[in-house]
């Protein structure tokens, strides 16, 4: 008698994705991982190479996939970032390559990027600068969503620059307008001297966590220290960025800078005290935490004194 062939998911050597995910979710929850079920599903989808929403329809794990999934779950339980395990991070409409040496972009930074996109869209052929660019998340989001923008991304870390350039090249291959990558320290008083008085929108997600603040294991053990901490009060990078931004911005140009949730008063106060900014505003995230501050360079009054000769920034 001829027997019917079995569907691959019915083989004894396979394990249903749903049961593997349930077990992994329990492991991750016990390790203190937030959103344990969602992360278990994302890891399973990564191993099976299917969209997360189709896990229930996917064939189960074969022996090799089961071992690979178990190894990834164990690493995540040790608090290695999910994005390091999959090698990618979602940001607005992008999927970025990330890993050791670069700060993993956070969902809350999408708010700053969205504000920057809105500001850039109000201008014709805007010049947008992204300081402390890291993986390029903000710069590449603006370039994708505002095709007419010229976007300049500035990063100091050689390791982060490698990820930035990789992501920039991938977006060009996908059809986006190329961005300009500049290797420079954002605290340099001569930063982007060739763009003085020309920038329409300047965005920055700098290192801003005060040194004494305890951070999650995913951050402490994996995000670059120089991309997280901003000195004793968390403002060591923000102060020179605010001072340089007003020189780079054209009259009426706008600035948006992310900051620690304890800086909801401090950063707007720094902007107001400068005297060259107007329309200073604090923005909160969906959880009600102070998240980023914005301001506009005054259109009246004298041109900012750069104290520098005109020159082109290095790239």
Main-sheet strand order equals 5-4-3-6-7-9-8
Proportion of β residues?
15-25%
Strands, count: 9
What structural class is derived from the secondary structure elements? alpha/beta
Largest β-sheet summary: 7 strands, mixed
General shape = elongated
What this model shows, in words?
This protein is an alpha/beta fold. The chain has 11 helices and 9 strands. A 7-stranded mixed sheet has the order 5-4-3-6-7-9-8, sandwiched between helices. Strands 1-2 form a two-stranded antiparallel ribbon. Strand 1 and strand 2 form a beta hairpin. It is elongated. The termini are far apart.
Task: Considering the chains and any ligands shown, give keywords for the structure.
315 residues; alpha/beta; seven-stranded mixed β-sheet; two-stranded antiparallel sheet; 11 helices; elongated; disordered N terminus
Outline of the structure:
The protein has helices at residues 17-30, 36-48, 63-77, 82-86, 109-121, 137-145, 158-173, 217-220, 225-228, 238-248, 266-274; strands at residues 88-91, 94-97, 127-131, 150-155, 180-183, 199-204, 249-258, 277-284, 290-297. It is an alpha/beta fold and 315 residues long. A hairpin with a 5-residue loop joins β8 (277-284) and β9.
SSE layout and pairings?
Layout: H1 17-30, H2 36-48, H3 63-77, H4 82-86, E1 88-91, E2 94-97, H5 109-121, E3 127-131, H6 137-145, E4 150-155, H7 158-173, E5 180-183, E6 199-204, H8 217-220, H9 225-228, H10 238-248, E7 249-258, H11 266-274, E8 277-284, E9 290-297
Parallel strand pairs: 3-4, 3-6, 4-5, 6-7
Antiparallel strand pairs: 1-2, 7-9, 8-9
